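Suppose a colleague, Dr. K., hands you the sequence of a protein chain of 260 amino acids and asks what its three-dimensional shape might be. Before reaching for any lab equipment, you can write down a predicted structure in token form. Begin with the sequence itself:
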Amino acid sequence: MSDNVLLVEEQDNVVTLTLNRPQVMNCLSVELLHALKAQVESLRFRTDVRVVIITSAGEKAFCAGADLKERATLTPIQVKEYIFTIRNLFSSIEQLNKPVIAAVNGIALGGGTELALASDIRIASMNASMGLTETRLAIIPGAGGTQRLPRLVGRGKAKELMFTGRRVGAEEALQISLVNQICEQKDLIDECMKMAAMICETGPVAIEQVKYAINYGIETDINTGLAIESNAYWVTIPTEDRLEGLAAFREKRKPVYKGQ
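The predicted structure, expressed as tokens, is then:
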């Protein structure tokens, strides 16, 4: 396995994972999927990591989806294995116990958009182009797109985009809430790091619990969701961080949270 299909950088409690196949628009090969899976699994239990940023090398593409040249060489069973792997990987990203920011720098099609959808926050450069274009290849999104896109932009808009296989630019993506923020490409990583820095000022246990409450509560009725929120709140009460937050407020200083 190559060592450089996925680059890993750590800075100020933030890990940046960079898809590094710019020569093929950062397509998701089997090798890259397994490299990304290994990193996501390793980050789950690292208390020193507060935020994860997923981006890609080059200026043209965030990720153009599956590696179709590789796909053509796979047997039907291998294709099923690929879909199983990517679907579970993206679910693990969505369920990771720390915030994930997708820095969408360029084209993000098919699995590329699905990777962004699995992230918690999406910040896109002005040259971004996103879309679930699988129907144009006579298949459908297979890594959560049919479920995550309508939950984010609404059923009607999601159907329109998937029925037509149409791409949307950065401004339209912002308008329909497909992304949280847009910026110039040269500023993309800086903007993501600014967002990450703000998150790093908050309580780690609180962030983990609020992500849990949102992810699981949104799929239920309001009363069940409120019960999930209540249980998540109880987790924060006995923490040292909560007492530190109160002390810092009283003493008019910035809190120093330890995730305890």
